[in-house]
Amino acid sequence: MIWFAAALLGFAALAWGFRVAGQTATGRAPYFRDMPFGVAYGYVLAVAALMWLVWAYTQGRSADPAVANKFFFLRIAVEGFIIFSIAAWLFRLLGRSVGTKQTKRLFRSMPLTAAFGIMMILIYVFVAVFASFLAPYGQAEIIRGVPANIMPGGDIALGGNPDFPLGTDQIGRDILSRLIYGAQNTVGIAFVTTVIAFLLGGSMGFLAATLGGWLDQLLSRIVDVLMAIPSLIFALLLMTIASVWAPRLGIPQTYFMILIIAVIDSTRVYRLARAVGQNIVVMDYIEAAKLRGEGLGYLMFREILPNATSPLLAEFGLRFCFVFLTIASLSFLGVGIQPPLADWGTMVRDLGGFVNFAQFAPMVATPPLLAAGAIALLAVAVNFVVDWMLHRSSGLKD
Amino acid sequence: MTQAPDTTPLVKIRDIRIDGRTDETWIPIIKGVNLTLQRGQVLGLIGESGAGKSTLGLAAMGYTRDGVRISGGSVEFDGIDLLTASAAVKRDLLGKRIAYVAQSAAASFNPAHRLIDQHVEGPVQHGIAGRKDSAEDGIALYRKLRLPNPEEIGFRYPHQVSGGQLQRAMTAMAMSCRPDLIIFDEPTTALDVTTQIEVLSAIRDIVAQYNTAAIYITHDLAVVAQMADRIKVLLRGEEVETADTRTMLDAPTQDYTKSLWAVRSFERPAKPAVQTGAVPVVSMQNVDASYGKVPVLHDVSFDIHAGRTVAVVGESGSGKSTAARCITGLLPPTSGQILFDGKVLPADYRKRSKGQLRQVQMIYQMADTALNPRMSIGQIIARPVQFYLGLTGKAKRQRVDALLEQIELDPAEYYNRLTSELSGGQKQRIGIARALAAEPRFIICDEVTSALDQLVAEGILRLLARLQDELSLSYMFITHDLATVRAIADEVVVMKDGRVVEQGPKAEMFSPPHHAYTDLLLSSVPEMDPDWLSNLLAERGVDNIGDAAVNKI
Lengths: 398, 553
Known about the structure:
The complex is a heterodimer of chains A (398) and B (553).
Chain A: H1 2-25, H2 30-33, H3 37-60, H4 65-70, H5 72-97, H6 101-108, H7 112-129, H8 131-134, H9 175-211, H10 213-228, H11 231-249, H12 253-281, H13 284-292, H14 296-333, H15 344-351, H16 366-394
Helix pairs in contact in A: 1-3, 3-5, 5-6, 5-7, 7-9, 7-16, 9-10, 9-12, 9-14, 10-12, 11-12, 12-14, 14-15, 14-16, 15-16
Chain B: E1 11-22, E2 25-37, E3 42-46, H1 53-59, E4 68-77, E5 80-81, H2 87-93, E6 98-101, H3 105-108, H4 115-125, H5 131-144, H6 150-153, H7 163-175, E7 181-185, H8 193-209, E8 213-218, H9 221-227, E9 230-235, E10 238-244, H10 245-250, H11 255-262, E11 282-291, E12 294-304, E13 309-313, H12 320-328, E14 335-340, E15 343-344, H13 354-359, E16 360-363, H14 367-370, H15 377-389, H16 393-406, H17 411-414, H18 424-437, E17 442-446, H19 454-471, E18 474-479, H20 482-488, E19 491-496, E20 499-505, H21 506-509, H22 516-524, H23 532-540, H24 546-552
Parallel strand pairs in B: 3-8, 3-9, 6-7, 7-8, 13-18, 13-19, 16-17, 17-18
Antiparallel strand pairs in B: 1-2, 1-4, 4-5, 9-10, 11-12, 11-14, 14-15, 19-20
Helix pairs in contact in B: 4-5, 4-7, 7-8, 15-16, 15-18, 16-18, 18-19
């Protein structure tokens, strides 16, 4: 504790020195002259954090396995960060030189985070579409003559197998193949669910905004009731009911899941669409269209919708992440996507026990983290893109 | 407006260059302007929107908006170079020695704090006066600015005070540190004429009393003539000319300045009187209307004949726009009826037939909100053509092209553009084309020129007049600007508090005797004569102008 306080005080002294040094070195350039102390302090803290990170990284690469294991995941994270940054930078470079005039312009003004997001989304889509060509084995295929729980990494000395670079799970299925098929199942189902949620919530929201009155009241109160119930618990409840109904009606349980999550999430979309719609409905051009005698459909989809695209698109990105996480959670809880279909949420649950090995055998603990990482990476990527789109539509200049 | 004996300039701007960022490149906004302001002097900055008036005004404080940078030149305030001054030096100047009064006081006050709390913030922060002294001083300033209930008004929140009063409270706030320089950025543009006159006289008095220098930014020439000692005319970021107010008004040297001065001379020839017994195109008969339970219109009746323009005049809240909403059917009247060509129109627009809707078109005040920003010009104009006339394909395109030519825009160039790529005047023209596309007989023009600069507004008025002659349209022209009325109207209806107080042909309206309210409206319109405000105040006294006088009627 004393050390901590001393370090903070030391940083403060360093920050003060840094500012003075900057002022004298640049001859009181406006940037250093007007720099608040907090900013100088921030610089010093950032440098300290960076130095620790470099130290930790070198520890992670140390020859002593006991030390290296401690910093194994940090090492992977740092390396991943650098590789992805370079890839995103190259991708942006590519976008700037290839494509139409408009896309080139788009890429020129794009921050690196957005380029990363778009790149990752494209990769996920590619993998999901061509899963059956990319995956070396089937998603439910229990490979004969291969033991279960092969370690990832393909290092034979540690118990890996180069034929299965990411190893196999408890019943001997190839984890790489399951990850690839998981993209198809999880992402595909999440996408369909989000689209349904938007069709439902968006049109209802616009309808309420345009017509107002008792219809608006009725829809809004229904949505209030639905929103008052915690969504995951509500979904769990409905899924339990659906699991009884599904075999009786002969409809796959997955369809029920899509519908249930879509309805629950459409309430959030409804709120947004209604709020955005209400701001647009008061515009004079809507009044002009009403006075022209236009019908409801034209008002909603030709006049209001084009003006609501940017907030709705941004919400689409976020909602997609939430839906995706809901599906993963439901699968984790055992009522989501049913085995033997590969799904990232289920994979995390099934392989979760291995995380306990993280301290002394980090490679063994990797399999559940791979699926979790796939989820996290997509969520981050989508959010980067959404942030960028929000920034663009808000018209902020920096 | 006393002349200060000190000859060193208070503000000295030399060859200033300011750029604004658009997409990826820096575009010059101000291209090398010099400005010198002596102590105690008022400088008027005029020019159309986009001329760089506000940017230059802010640069005089050493400040630029986001996405704008100063790329060259120098700004000196009392010998201090503001462009290289440190943040600490600037903090000490702004608010204390340089103050700023924004266009919309309603948007500039923090709605969560009382006026007096915002008033004392400057002096307390700058260590000039304590809270208590500053608050007392604030009340004294409120009294000087002739705000009603000066003792008590400071304890209200911004939304509890009217627009004109807020603007004066803001001037008081700017005065709270007794600055050497105040920058007024269009402080009366958003106000009614009767309110404007009060604010103008209050600002002029207080600036003269404390010998404060001021930069007064506006696009209204008549206003600047009252306020400024010197006038600087800007055009697209460049100075056109600078001169004393009187010299400038009497003998402008540049063509552009002369054209600005000439705007107010447009006036249409009077038309012959309407034949007795002719059926009016639109007739409002004894209309009462209310928003919820609040009555807004009381027994309003007037006729609009074919090929005529009826101007409906009054200040905000007088029911002008509500009358228009009754005619369009957006607000069904509680009693009375609206006749079109002698036939009764259904009260609610939803019950009107397509043919009936087609005959009544509307042009809006704010072209920005009246045109869908996501549609191209072609789509906007083509929709009514297709909807009402059923034209498609080539015939539709031909009709749209013809309409664009009618409003003097080149179809090849503008057909595919978005409204965001047009200037304010061009947007208003698109609004006119959309109304014309329905081939109506009657158009409601709701303050169509009030958001535009005078030169552009004159172009719109001339266009409307030409179209009326060619297509024998009838206009209902809602406005609060009597110069516009003089330019385009055939008949005038004056409204106050939802009642018609006077109506008749234009010539009669502009010659006495008037109704007391018409008289007040007429006398409140600023004239180009620099002595107009002084004369008016001498003639009527401070208590007989503006809102104070309205309340007496």
